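In the current project phase, we have settled on a layout for protein records. One protein thus recorded is set out beneath this paragraph:
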Amino acid sequence: MKLEGKTIGFAMTGSFCTFAKVFPQIEALADQGADIVPIMSEISFSTDTRFGKAEDHIKRFENITGKKVIATVCDAEPIGPRKMLDALVVAPCTGNSLAKIATGIADSSVTMAVKSHLRNKRPVIIALSTNDGLGNNAKNIGYLFNMKSIYVVPFEQDDCFTKENSLISDMSQIIPAIESALDGKQLQPMLNILK
């Protein structure tokens, strides 16, 4: 398997409604033999929502990966200097985290992990989940497309009639996106058009 023996950081941010789509991809990644380093934003690490308790999400993440979740800026900072990862996935990536990554802000465990990892010119794979992807965050998405070492999981409008600015990546494409990114290529087509 292509990802067997690869060390993949997997960072989750607070799009809680998307966790149910993301966890099966983490499990599939583990099944392929990848060594997964779990990372959660402080919000996703500490917030109970109608989509589940933080404690349960943490336990599930740690059970899949066999490692304690990184959830502080301090614990994320060594990722780059120690060259800990072959690739880093941010899934789901909220508009808030997306904007910070695009502008170089590293004030959370996830954004610090990205900034630290990018110093090694190794791939960061972003799976969008944002209600303002075609609104205020459109400029940030465009900016990320032109950044070195940034790759995007193919995405689409998730509800164009009631949330016209909302974008979500096809989480089932996370593993192919990682494989392409490790080859230095953006998985295509990047934009899924509704039929």
